[in-house]
Amino acid sequence: MNDRRYLSRKFWLAACGWVAGVAFFACGFMTADQWMTQSAFVLGLYLAANVGQKAVDKP
Question: What is the pLDDT of residue 48?
Answer without folding.
Answer: 94
